[in-house]
Amino acid sequence: MKDKLKGWLFVLIQFLLLALICISSAAEFKYIDRPLFSAIHYIGVTLILIGVLLIMLIYFSFGQYMSPNPVPLKNSILKTTGFYKFIRHPMYLAVVILMTGVILYFQAFINLLWLPVLFLFFIIKSSMEEKLLSKKFPEYTSYISRTKRIIPFIY
User: What is the tally of structural domains in the chain?
Assistant: First the structure.
């Protein structure tokens, strides 16, 4: 399978996973009767706002070279400043924060089980992306050695 097609398959899986998290969280909220906690609701709203803000900031800082497909664009550049100074895949972190917010907003605690699945998916997707970036940019190997993958200072 060609890299570009494989990349779009990753994009499809990613959006299906995100839709699954959102829909199942809303369904859990609607159909499972339990006491709701306003503090958790507000934490969820806060994480949603932080996630959306981060996604917008990351998108605008990277600009026209951003694509959901892990295959680098022909005219892409290696960005190592801004958010990318601390982690190689800040958009994945922002999406995990956003989805955590959605789950907490709906207080869909069963759906918290989807977060490790989403994180593992991003590890697999970023592994493919990093192989391709290493081929395109020889300096990517040294960039890997000085930055974390998804979580600043941790992983």
Answer: 1
83 and 144 in contact (C-beta within 8 Å)? no
- Asked whether residue 106 is assigned to any structural domain, the reply reads yes
Domain that holds residue 118: 3-30+39-68+76-146
pLDDT, tens digit (0-9, with 9 covering 90-100), for 20-63? 999 999 999 999 988 989 999 999 999 999 999 999 999 998 87
The sign of the dihedral angle between the CA atoms of 84, 148, 6, 134 is: positive
Any idea which of 68-82, 93-107, 113-127 has the lowest mean pLDDT?
68-82
Q: pTM of the full predicted structure?
A: 0.93
Nearest Cα to Cα of residue 107 among 18, 31, 14, 15: 31
The structure tokens 């940019």 sit at 137
DSSP string for 8-60:
HHHHHHHHHHHHHHHHHHHHHHHHS-----HHHHHHHHHHHHHHHHHHHHHHH
